[in-house]
Amino acid sequence: MIAAPEPPLRRAHDSPDPDLALVTRALAKRFGDRTALAGLDLEVPAGSFFGVVGPNGAGKTTALSMATGLLRPDHGQAWIHGVDVWAQPLEAKRRVGVLADGVRTFDRLTGAQLVTYAGLLHGLDAETVAQRTADLLRVMDLQDAGRKLVVDYSAGMTKKVNLAAAMVHAPDVLVLDEPFEAVDPVSAANIRDILNDYVGRGGTVIVSSHVMDLVQRMCTHVAVIADGTLRATGTVEEVRAGRDLEERFVDLVGGRHTGEGLAWL
Ligand SMILES: Nc1ncnc2c1ncn2[C@@H]1O[C@H](COP(=O)(O)OP(=O)(O)OP(=O)(O)O)[C@@H](O)[C@H]1O
């Protein structure tokens, strides 16, 4: 009798290389009849400072929310260091810190309480949380504001305290949606230093931003998303191909208008 052939081994291609900080495959989402993301394949190398850029409504927030467990995808998968974000949410969330855009925070807490709460939710002991909260509020220039309610914070201060809350559990990957929006230039420079140090120590930062100049100066890698699809990805040098990133961005996404049509202005 001829033995039945062995069933093919289940290939390891199902789970990606854990050395990659973030991988998404065919990540897709519709809202009603509007396709917000049409099957995104992204690979973010560990230790990179990765910019996600695209016009308004391109799908950046949708992509980052699905990649970090905040929004359930219609299709596709996401992995943080090889951990399936939707199959192993607790393990994935341990490894990632998220600054979401436009999500309400617990603003009836003081800044110090908010960061402390985030640390305790991640299972850190009280002493570690107290030490890290003090360190984070200091580097964010929020020491005095730490005693004020977050609801009374400015937009920039809210951004900074939410960033502190995203970092308190010392994640391997930080995913930051528009981290510099509404933040003053001195605070932005301080945050850039903190993020650069974090990357220097082996962490990975993924930021979405509209500010091409900032992405060109700050990031090692970039992905350009438009109309829910990936238009280009690679190192910043590869994507900008010897030109200004802003020029390349406009080429890739189109949509430049002249001032025609506003003759009355
Ligand atoms: N909760 C929602 N309900 C309905 N439509 C949504 C929702 N969230 C996003 N969309 C739509 O999905 C598309 C992508 O939105 P998304 O917020 O991901 O874009 P973005 O690239 O982050 O934009 P921006 O740069 O303006 O923040 C847009 O057309 C948006 O209107």
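^ adenosine-5'-triphosphate complex. The longest strand covers residues 20-31. The chain is about 35% helix and 25% strand.
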